[in-house]
Specification:
Blueprint: H1 2-31, E1 36-42, E2 57-63, H2 77-80, E3 84-85, E4 100-101, H3 110-113, E5 119-124, E6 139-149, E7 152-167, H4 175-180, E8 188-193, H5 195-207, E9 209-214, E10 221-223, E11 229-230, H6 237-249, E12 254-256
Antiparallel strand pairs: 1-2, 3-4, 5-8, 6-7, 6-9, 7-8, 7-11, 10-12
Amino acid sequence: MNKVALLVALAIAAIGGVLLFIYLQRFEQEASGGAKVKLLVAIKPIHAGDNLTDDMLATREVPQAYVEDRAVRESERPRVIGLRVATAVQAQQTLMWTDLAIATDDRRDLSSLVQPGMRAVSVRATTEGSFALIRPGDRVDVIATMPQGNDQRESIVLLQNVLVLAVGMDMGNDPIAKRQRNDRNEQMLTLSLNVPEAQLLALAIEKGHLSVALRNPDDVRIAEGLTEMSSSTLTDQKSLHAVQSVRKTGPVRLESSGGAQ
């Protein structure tokens, strides 16, 4: 009996050790930004107008949390070899889909910029010039303002760190589209979203109107714990002071994220 009990104890200890090892590996992976993703990087400077060749590119592993939607994955190497580069890429810089001249005459096909699992969703500004200073490749936060009842309105941060695919007909390095930009075209913004985000955005459009806040391109943090704000915040001194104090103390509970997408 003692021998059987000893064997059972050793087996349980072995299983426990394996589970602990798996847990520690997963914890270390999550703490470092998640699983590594292989991205394409330039070995040497690539000039605008050059056609990509295999010897221009290498592979770099980057944690998932720090991977941009625009980054070209190593698995997509066959798709980009031979394509013309629209903007210069420096050595050791990650290759982006927005760096490439996709389709003929450097005019991009929007569907080619949509990454697997993502969708291109367009929204229209409610006021003239709202998107005038935003450019393809920028990142924005989407804010929804909706009726709350009793002539009150409610504002919520709907989406954060969303990639802008196009502004009107401008999808980046398309000189024709840039020359044709006008106030009417600039009222349409095309965003890169996953399917649940697209559904959420559609509901928000039905209930109210949207505005966007432009982000620093190097800031990929997601602010946690943001509260909804109503019209009464504008007249409630205590609530207004709490909002204003955030600028002095800085945002709270920030976590790194790779964004929407």
